[in-house]
Design brief:
heterodimer; A: alpha+beta; 10 helices; B: alpha+beta; 2 domains; five-stranded mixed β-sheet; five-stranded antiparallel β-sheet; 7 helices
Chain lengths: 289, 247
């Protein structure tokens, strides 16, 4: 999921001693700026969000939901163990979720551990201060990027999957190549493949807007101003559940993204996201001894 | 030797320590806190002054309305009032008003009433839907005659946290909002003690901690400075919760 974006012609013909191919311009400035702002912001939002979750580690569907009501997800503890319960499925999570013994011997029963939250010791008010401040950065960045990518046609050209991309035979071939870690080489590496398009499209046009809107739907002030927010989510507690699910999917995206960057060549990938310049991977035949 | 694993673990630990340090920095907290004003201005900008919180049907009411915070105010004064079914209780309305009032619960229950089925959103994340009946706050303020220099309405409560009494405050936009009521009934019963008997505030576009319970006194003020830590509420003063709790 890390390779490729612009279909620009290579602008610098450079053979090089390190065995790489041509250096080409790849990521636009707007993409690069947004990427690094988000790399920080999303991380802070996830961790301060887990702090807020810790204040009431139960999720519900519908308009209301509190301790007496049925939660579909709960992180809790018994006398001496932690658990994650999803529906009727209960998973022992002692040491990680719901129950852990700290270095000083104290038992901590918070849902998410201190290393996963901002701040690391429990403070709902501080978690909210971080979350509700950086939410502005996330939302403004998202809106600016959505507008920019639609105007400069980056979205249409590079991110929206085309019918041919979605043909089952094509998709299957890509999944097989991906699983074998056969990444595209040469010019082909400059275009997103379908799995990448689906991932980035899903992140930028589905998950991020949805997490912002469900975040707003939890605000009583916003619900009065824009009452459609409640209906969009199906209730404030549904909004909270969807918000959490989106956060977990974004976390999953980040993990896969980082793994793919490592597999595709971290130095080349990171440089392309900083300077915009990307060295085309040599064709496999060329590389063969 | 620095392995990749220790490098990653080390930088993650440094980042966490960094966040905790920033969290303790007065300057950085000031920056974070500035978002509160931005949020309030933005919400007020896109929101009609009179925009109503969603009102639900009877079928949507939570089977059990969770009582939170103080469930029984300590101290002999409140106990005595409760033992007498609040017949001796009086609500003082004073401060920057032309005609200070002292109202009994019967007088308040005889005033024009508004009934609304609304959602109570706790800052912790849970919600409960209940049916509230009470007198619109603006009727009480009009009866007392708010002076022109009044900017905030402060609600002084009977429950205490150590030395500090619970209190909350709202501005005049929320004070004169049609759904802002002094509620004396929940789900068609007189307010019970865990829910704030005999009278509590409902300010429906904000979170639960603004819904002050066990009201004793309503004070009109031109500033929140000079009242405890000057942040406008118990949780605001002691825990840095937002004064504007619309989000």
């Amino acid at each position: 999921m890390a390779t490729a974006a612009r279909s620009n012609q290579p602008d610098m013909a450079q053979g090089s001693a390190d065995g790489g191919g041509t250096l080409v311009k790849r990521h636009r400035l707007s993409t690069r700026i947004w990427h690094w702002i988000n790399a920080l912001t999303v991380f802070l939002m996830l961790m301060s969000g887990l702090m807020i979750f810790n204040a009431h580690p139960r999720l519900y569907w519908g308009q209301y939901g509190a301790n007496f009501d049925q939660a579909w997800l709960e992180i809790g503890s018994t006398q001496d163990s932690g658990f994650l319960r999803i529906g009727s499925l209960s998973i022992a999570t002692t040491g990680v979720l719901g129950y852990r013994t700290e270095a000083n011997g104290n038992v901590n029963r918070r849902a998410f551990p201190g290393w996963a939250t901002i701040p690391s010791s429990y403070s709902l008010s501080a978690g909210r201060r971080w979350h509700l401040a950086f939410a502005w950065v996330l939302a403004i960045g998202l809106i600016a990027y959505l507008i920019a990518s639609l105007v400069n046609r980056h979205a249409w050209r590079d991110l929206f999957p085309r019918p041919a991309d979605l043909a089952p035979r094509h998709l299957w071939q890509e999944i097989k190549d991906h699983a074998r870690l056969r990444f595209p080489t040469g010019e082909a590496a400059l275009r997103y493949n379908t799995l990448q398009k689906l991932s980035y499209f899903g992140l930028i046009f589905v998950l991020l807007p949805l997490i912002v809107l469900t975040g707003l739907a939890m605000s009583p002030g916003m619900d009065a101003a824009w009452s459609w927010l409640i209906d969009l989510a199906g209730g404030r507690q549904s909004a909270r559940s969807i918000h959490f699910i989106c956060a977990m999917l974004i976390l999953f995206f980040i993990l896969v993204h980082l793994v793919m960057v490592l597999l595709a060549g971290p130095m080349n990938e990171i440089r392309s996201m900083i300077t915009g310049r990307y060295r085309l991977p040599r064709d496999r035949e060329e590389r063969a001894p | 030797m620095i392995t990749r694993r220790t490098l990653i673990a080390g930088s993650a630990a440094a980042l966490l320590t960094g966040c905790d340090r920033l969290n303790d920095s007065r300057t950085f907290r000031g920056v974070l806190r500035s978002a509160e004003g931005l949020t309030m201005k933005a919400q007020r900008l896109i929101s009609d002054r009179e925009a109503l919180a969603r009102e639900f049907d009877a079928a949507d009411i939570s089977p059990t309305f969770r009582a939170n915070g103080t469930r029984m105010p300590a101290g002999p004064d409140y106990q005595r009032l409760a033992a007498g079914a609040f017949a001796e209780w009086r609500l003082a309305v004073d401060g920057l008003v032309r005609r200070p009032l002292s109202l009994s619960i019967d007088q308040i229950r005889r005033m024009p009433r508004r009934t609304q089925i609304t959602r109570h959103d706790c800052v912790e994340g849970w919600s409960a839907i209940g049916k509230w009946t009470g007198v619109p706050l603006h009727l009480v303020l009009d009866a007392a005659g708010l002076r022109d220099d009044a900017r905030y309405i402060v609600f002084h409560c009977a429950d205490r946290f150590g030395e500090r009494p619970y209190y909350e405050s709202i501005d005049l936009i929320d004070a004169f909002h049609p759904q802002t009521i002094l509620a004396w009934a929940l789900n068609d019963r007189y307010l019970q003690i865990p829910n704030g008997a005999p009278l509590r505030l409902r300010v429906e576009r904000q979170l639960g901690y603004k819904q002050a319970k066990y009201l004793m006194r309503i004070e009109a003020r031109d500033t929140l400075a000079g009242l405890w830590d000057g942040r406008g509420g118990y949780w605001e003063d002691t825990n840095d919760y937002e004064w504007y709790a619309g989000i």
